[in-house]
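User: Once you have settled down, look closely at the record that follows, taking as long as you need, and be ready to discuss the fold:
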Amino acid sequence: TKDRVMCTNVFSSWTISGDADSSKVSFTEIHDAIKEIIVDKFAGPAKTGRFSASVQRTLYEIGEAVIERFPSISSIFFSLPNIHFYPVDFKEFRTKLENNGEVFLTFDGAAGLIEATVTRKGAKLPPIRAKL
């Protein structure tokens, strides 16, 4: 959709395959690269941004990119609260100003929570996460 800004706070955790040689896994490199992948797939280039059909689709694309880049990662979990920003309608302010997709307003709190795990094909499924 092009009628609002996609916004969230990303929480992510990943599972290193039990077959991976931990002496050859650079945990710092993985962490830093995953942050870069998240920013690239979520935000895109600063001047143009990146269109997203949905938070779920973007989450899946991030997971795909991480699993493709790091053979040692068997799965990656995401938790993304859906925080909405809507365009401001200047007509309510009795002004001739027009909003050309530049001014947005948010509301307190998230409007939903999207969680998913992207798992490498053939990998052992991660344990089910339960919250009480």
